[in-house]
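Regression test case RT-17, inverse folding.

Input:
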C-alpha cells in the first residue's frame, strides 16, 4: 500500500529534520558523543573512526571488526576502537569518478569456512565503465585479497559517472541480489536486452538460478529479477518474510521504497512521482497497467542511501522497522512498518548535518552509520528506550 508523503516547502522539510539551516551549513565531523531525543528512544551518537575518504559500504566481521569501502578504491578493516588498517591489497582496477568507485561489500554465506567476501565496484572497459561484482578470499593477516573473480558485469559499459547502484544482499536461499542503476540513461531502463535499472539475482559463483523469472525467455536477460528501477542505493532482507526491500533515488521528488518481485516492472522512467531536475514533467504519469506502484515515496526527495531493518531487542518498539540514511537532507529516517506497510515516518539526527551513506546494525544491537565526506566517519548510534 502506498503511503504518500505530500510535497512540503524546502523550509518545512528542514524544520521536520530538526535543522535550522541544512543547505547553508558546513558539516563538521562529530567530535564527541552527542545525545538526541526521538519518539521512542534516547540516542547517543559517537564517532568510532574518522579520516575515511567517502566511505560507501560497511559490513561486520565475526569478531566485531568492520570491513569498510572507500569510494576512491580502498578497502579497510576497522576495529571497534577505531583503528583503521592500511588498504587491503589485491583489488581489481576500479573506475573512481563521479558516483563510481569501490562501492558495497558483504561477507559470503560461507565466510567462516572460506574467508570469502563479495564487493561491487565501477569497472572500466570499452565504452566507459559499469557496475561489476567480484568475490575474493580475504587474508586478514597479510591484508590481501586472493582468488579474485568477477562474477557479474553490467552490460554495456557507458560514459558518465552517475547511477551505478549498487547494494549487495544475500537471500536466505543463498542467492545474491545486486541492485544496478540506469547509468543516467533513463530511457534504457525499459530495454530488455541490456543491464539498466534492475535488480539482478545470481548464484554466489555467478551462474544463473534456474528459477529466475526470465530464464529461457527470448529477448530477456536471465540474470534479471526485476526492472524499471532508477538508482537503488539501499537494499535489505525483511527479517520475518525474507523478502528483498530496496529504495531508489528519483530525479526531483519521488524517491521510492519497493519490494521487488520476480519479473515485475517498477516503471522507471514511464511512471514516477517526481519531475525533471529544474522542473518539467516526463513519462506518462504515476500509474500504468503492467507497472508496479511503490509502497512508499518521498516528495521532495531526501536522496536515500543505505538501509537496515532493526532486529535488536535494545528498543523493542523499533523491532521490524526500517532505518534509511539520507544524503540530501543529512539525516536518519525511521520507517515504522506494520504488517508489511509503512505507517509512519520519523526523521532524526538532522542536527548532525551529515550526509548518511550507509546504515547497518552491529552485533551489539547498535546502529552504525557511514558519513559521506572527504573526512568521513563511522558513527555508532546507541539507543536507550524511552518506555
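Golden output:
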Amino acid at each position: 500500500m502506498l503511503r504518500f508523503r505530500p510535497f512540503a516547502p524546502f523550509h518545512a522539510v528542514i524544520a521536520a529534520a530538526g535543522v535550522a539551516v541544512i543547505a547553508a551549513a558546513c558539516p563538521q565531523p562529530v567530535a564527541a558523543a552527542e545525545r538526541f531525543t526521538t519518539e521512542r528512544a534516547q540516542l547517543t551518537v559517537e564517532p568510532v573512526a574518522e579520516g575515511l575518504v567517502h566511505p560507501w559500504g560497511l559490513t561486520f566481521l565475526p569478531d566485531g571488526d568492520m570491513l569498510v569501502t572507500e569510494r576512491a578504491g580502498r578497502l579497510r578493516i576497522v576495529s571497534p576502537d577505531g583503528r583503521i588498517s592500511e588498504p587491503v591489497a589485491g583489488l581489481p582496477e576500479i573506475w573512481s569518478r563521479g558516483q563510481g568507485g569501490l562501492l558495497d561489500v558483504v561477507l559470503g554465506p560461507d565466510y567462516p569456512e572460506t574467508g570469502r567476501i563479495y564487493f561491487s565496484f565501477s569497472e572500466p572497459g570499452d565504452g566507459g565503465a559499469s557496475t561489476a561484482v567480484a568475490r575474493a578470499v580475504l587474508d586478514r593477516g597479510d591484508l590481501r585479497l586472493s582468488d579474485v573473480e568477477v562474477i557479474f558485469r553490467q552490460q554495456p559499459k557507458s560514459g558518465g559517472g552517475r547511477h551505478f547502484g549498487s547494494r549487495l544482499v544475500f537471500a536466505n536461499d543463498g542467492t545474491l541480489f545486486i541492485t544496478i542503476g540506469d547509468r543516467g540513461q533513463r530511457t534504457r531502463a525499459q530495454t530488455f536486452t541490456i543491464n539498466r535499472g534492475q535488480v539482478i539475482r545470481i548464484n554466489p559463483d555467478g551462474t544463473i538460478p534456474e528459477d529466475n523469472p526470465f530464464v529461457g525467455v527470448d529477448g530477456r536477460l536471465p540474470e534479471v529479477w526485476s526492472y524499471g528501477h532508477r538508482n537503488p542505493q539501499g537494499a535489505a532482507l525483511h527479517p520475518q518474510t525474507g523478502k528483498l526491500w530496496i529504495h531508489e533515488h528519483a530525479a526531483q521528488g519521488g524517491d521510492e521504497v519497493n519490494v521487488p518481485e520476480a519479473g515485475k516492472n517498477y516503471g522507471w522512467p514511464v511512471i514516477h512521482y517526481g519531475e525533471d531536475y529544474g522542473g518539467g514533467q516526463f513519462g506518462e504519469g504515476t500509474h500504468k497497467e503492467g507497472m508496479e506502484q511503490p509502497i512508499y515515496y518521498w516528495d521532495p526527495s531526501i536522496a536515500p542511501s543505505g538501509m537496515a531493518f532493526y532486529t535488536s531487542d535494545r528498543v523493542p518498539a523499533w523491532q521490524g522497522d526500517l532505518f534509511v540514511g539520507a544524503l540530501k537532507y543529512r539525516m536518519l529516517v525511521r520507517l515504522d512498518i506494520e504488517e508489511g506497510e509503512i505507517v509512519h515516518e520519523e526523521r532524526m539526527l538532522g542536527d548532525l548535518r551529515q550526509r548518511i551513506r550507509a546504515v547497518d546494525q552491529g552485533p551489539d544491537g547498535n546502529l552504525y552509520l557511514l558519513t559521506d565526506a572527504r573526512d568521513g566517519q563511522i558513527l555508532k548510534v546507541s539507543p536507550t528506550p524511552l518506555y
